[in-house]
Amino acid sequence: MQVLYTIGIWFYGLGIRLAAAFSEKALLWVKGRLNLYQELEKAFATGDRPVWIHCASLGEYEQAKPLIQKIKQEQPDTRILTTFFSPSGYTQGIKDNISDDVFYIPLDLPSRVLHFLRIVQPKAAIFVKYEFWYNFMRQLHWHKIPFYYVSAIFRENQHFFKWYGKWFVRRLKMASHFFVQTESSKALLESVGIMQVTVCGDTRFDRVKAIAAQAQPFPFMDTFRNGKKIIVAGSTWEPDEQLLAQLLQNYPGYKLVVAPHEINRTPEVKRTFATYKTAQYSALNETELPDCDVLIIDTIGILSRLYQYSDVSYVGGAFKTGLHNILEAAVYGKPLFFGPHYDHFNEAVNLVALKGAFPVATVKTMSDIMQRFEKNPEYYAQTCDICQQYVAQNSGAADIIYKQIEESIRKDDVNIASDK
Fold it and tell me: What is the pTM of this model?
């Protein structure tokens, strides 16, 4: 199985290199790994041994940030290396500048893995959520470098829990500890003999709390509101926007802020809301803003702070592409809506069960709930409180993780010098 896995990884890398001729993302993936080892050797020539944190992409990086910040708060002199598999995460990691070093991870081939580990000499490794790279796991285990999984979540349909999953489970058993999001994840791991598990939730709760606590005001939002209520709709796609365009017809007391998931879709969004008076963030006219019905956010980086102005929040993606981050909205304690396909998103399942969030497949479904809010202020206030309390009660994962890994990230007694 080890050989088959490695061959599969080699062909995967070949496929990305071939795709680079047609895909900008694949090209960035390839270019980002050119001269990787030379750059690593320059960065780690001093011999400082880092704590290595690996994220697949942007979403996992958001989960890593609270832990990075916690380690830096408690151990300011600890060097943090953050690696990424995808360009979107890498680009944001460079921009944020909260890690000491930011690189791409090399392909999970034995020689490349060992070369990487020889140069970096990590004290400990932390993988976020789903990053199961089996050659890395094997080498870290062999060289007695502790490695952890944080904000992990496991489901019955994963290959670890199938009849053919024994080889993969043996690799999982090499991990020092799993910090999982749910009790069901712990039960699944224990069912295959993995007992080094702690349920501590998702570090994204810590992240959104920190963002909300530091959220700066946007004065233009008060101008836009002009005495009406606001729906903030984030990370939307065409089905979400069609639903919201129809909803506004029945609610003249509401205005809409819509932030499409891809800002290059702005012309399409404008067409969807053509019957309304719209404004674009990139071309704000303060004198016209009070009379506008729809404000299109055609930039990135401000959505999480805009949710603070919502009376009702809507998060896109749950019709086709996959539900986006609902915690950024829930932290502000306002009722939350999204499309019908949310079953694979634990926080969405929980909030729906608590009646703080509402899946909607039709305009009528959302309209009925909105009418209930309008007629029953007490019900609206109760829903707001459910969302706020859910985030508050599930925060603190970064503290739990740090306490358990603190000893590992302080030590400095491993040297990787030979092939294994």
Answer: 0.86
* Residue-averaged pLDDT of the chain: 94
Angstrom distance (rounded) from CA 159 to CA 25: 28
Q: Residue 257 — φ and ψ, nearest 5°?
A: -105, 120
Q: DSSP letters along 70-90, please?
A: HHHHH-TT--EEEEESSHHHH
Angle at 381 between CA 376 and CA 384, to 5 degrees: 130
Alpha-helical (H) ranges within 146-284 are 166-172, 183-191, 204-213, 219-225, 238-249, 266-272
153-182 pLDDT per residue, tens:
999 999 999 999 999 999 999 999 999 999
Residues 53, 64 contacting (CB under 8 angstroms): yes
Its sign, for the CA torsion 358, 363, 369, 370, is positive
Domains, the chain = 33-200+396-410 (3.40.50.11720), 217-393 (3.40.50.2000)
Using 50 as the pLDDT threshold, list the residues of the chain that sit under it: 418-420
Provide the residue type at 78 as one letter. Answer: T
